[in-house]
């Protein structure tokens, strides 16, 4: 009985050695992605720009940055670093997920800075493939409507830097309110309002 057990252990040992030898034959060539980003953490790999290859998303604790690297699908791959924000104090525990249900990878981050109350996320709109252009607005901004001059169908874009009650109205030359476009509390973000009022006559309106 002992002899059989010994042989079983011996044969098992031989199998393990063979498997380990085969695995050791796999090579992992080393390629540089970036040598100028410090204190990176929470690295995620995902197709951020919708071009069917995997890009990389990370936080830089030392540089106060949330950033990503674009994969050009070359051989070897050429990585291009793009900044989402460089003004987030001591980012920590970066997460990547479909936060708004549009199946595009967004970024979610909290600050490790003592006394900081910052928790933010950055939306990936998937339109331009440039996540670095999409971050929370840093100031209030009301952008010129399009098209201009007045057209019954137009778009009005505005940005707010903090949660606020927003009232956006259209006025005629006499100061009368002719349309209420927005009248509610909004989180800090950039919004686009579609305005379709074909009953309006041509003229000058203010908003």
Q: How would you describe the overall organization of this protein?
A:
The protein has 207 residues and is mainly beta. Among the domains are: 87 residues; 56 residues, no CATH class. Helix content is 11%, strand content 38%. It is built from one helix and twelve strands, in the order H-E-E-E-E-E-E-E-E-E-E-E-E. The strands form four sheets. It has a four-stranded antiparallel β-sheet, with no helix packed on it. Strands 5-6-7 form a three-stranded antiparallel β-sheet, with no helix packed on it. The protein is elongated and about 80 Å long. The N terminus is likely disordered.
What's the layout of helices and strands?
Blueprint: H1 2-24, E1 40-46, E2 55-60, E3 65-71, E4 79-85, E5 91-97, E6 106-111, E7 119-122, E8 141-142, E9 153-159, E10 164-171, E11 177-186, E12 190-196
Antiparallel strand pairs: 1-2, 2-3, 3-4, 5-6, 6-7, 8-9, 9-12, 10-11
């Amino acid at each position: 009985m002992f002899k059989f057990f010994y042989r079983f252990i011996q044969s098992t040992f031989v199998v393990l050695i063979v498997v380990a030898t085969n695995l050791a034959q796999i090579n992992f060539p080393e390629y540089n992605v970036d040598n100028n980003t410090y204190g990176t953490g929470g690295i995620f790999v995902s197709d951020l720009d919708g071009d069917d290859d995997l890009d990389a998303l990370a936080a830089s604790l030392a540089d106060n940055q949330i950033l990503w690297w674009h994969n050009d699908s070359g051989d070897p791959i050429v990585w291009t670093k793009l900044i989402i924000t460089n003004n987030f104090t001591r980012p920590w525990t970066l997460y990547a997920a479909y936060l708004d249900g549009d199946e595009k990878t967004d970024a979610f981050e909290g600050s490790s800075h003592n006394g900081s109350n910052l928790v933010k996320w950055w939306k990936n709109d998937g339109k331009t493939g440039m996540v670095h252009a999409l971050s929370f607005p840093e100031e209030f901004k009301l952008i010129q409507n399009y098209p201009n001059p007045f057209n019954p169908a137009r778009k009005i874009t505005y940005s707010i830097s903090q949660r606020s009650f927003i009232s956006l109205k259209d006025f005629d030359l006499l100061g009368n309110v002719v349309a209420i476009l927005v009248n509610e509390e909004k989180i800090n973000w950039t919004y686009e309002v579609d305005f379709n009022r074909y009953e309006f006559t041509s003229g000058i309106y203010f908003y």
